[in-house]
What does this fold into?
Amino acid sequence: MARISIAQPFRIQFSSAAGNWKESTIGLIGKQFRLLASQYPRLYLVSVFCFATLGYAYLLLFPILFLISSYAAFKSLSSYQSLAIEQLLIQIIVLVISAVVTYRIIRFRTALPQSTVKRTRQPSSMLFELVDDYVRHYQSVKINRIVFSSDFELDIVKTPRWSIPIWSSTTLIIGIPILQCFSVTRFQCALARRIGQYSRRRKWKGNLLYQLRNIWSLYSENGNYPSFGYQPVCWFFSVFAAIYRIISAPVARTEELAADTCAMQLFSDDDVLDLITVQMACNRYLEDECLPAMQKMQASHSMTADGIASGTVSLICKLIHSDRMVQWVAKAGSAESRLDDALPSLAMRVQNIGHTQPRMHVIEPESAASIYLAGAG
It folds into this structure.
């Protein structure tokens, strides 16, 4: 489920500046990789995998420089031969810089995702049982934490446990709008497709490249006020993560299509088609109409962030139960994926599960929140 920010609409990437990106250097690189993915898919995967390893290489660069410069300085100081003072100074400067940056890299820890909503109702035991059932069925990665957000999202986030992203903690993020606006079947299907995507039975390379889209951006956080000595890492990943996000979009779309296929292990193709149709129509409604209006309200200070979140949830629920949904399904069907977008187009997703047209079920009266949030009834 793609993340659509509600509480903080100004954080949406590629909104008003989307057209500018297509003409930028990074946009041009993305176009070339998209072309490569369509013509030579294996070469594309190898290229993205090699590019992804540059992130690991950069994090290891400074520790390696520290070891090399330490050895060189020791050899120089212990040598009986006369040394050029310039050479010794260069070795000491490299040693100090690499030592400071290495220390900051070792101390660096990414923050785990936190709940961003003030909940008066706790998740029921049925929600945890449902997650456990899906994890067992798909033989998926273990879910370490479940948190709730005010955004229109249902996602699994990998957070590195160490400064090098090798071992990670897995967090399931459930947007309250999903629980309140989706029927029980739609929510279960959305949860199954996301957990199934992280099945250990699937090929790990594509899923790893998908995860790194979010992981690399973590290393550029707090870019305006980085800790002393961390600036080289922050500056590098602020550019590297943006480029990687663009060039990895085709493999991310393949992963999203695979997630739709995984959902059909537990749900019928009609159920998956219904989820895809509603999800894509709601995404289009949020981006084109709802959030721009909320941005104006937030800019004029006429509505708080909590008010925007609750108001948007109400609007989404009304949309799903109204005749206007047909209009937004049509708009979603004619829209193309942006250059950096992980979600394929509606047409691609529908065709992937063996259908030709999007379609919705008859609306179920009971929301997922009535089952999976305690005291919701």
Summary: The two ends are 26 Å apart (CA to CA).
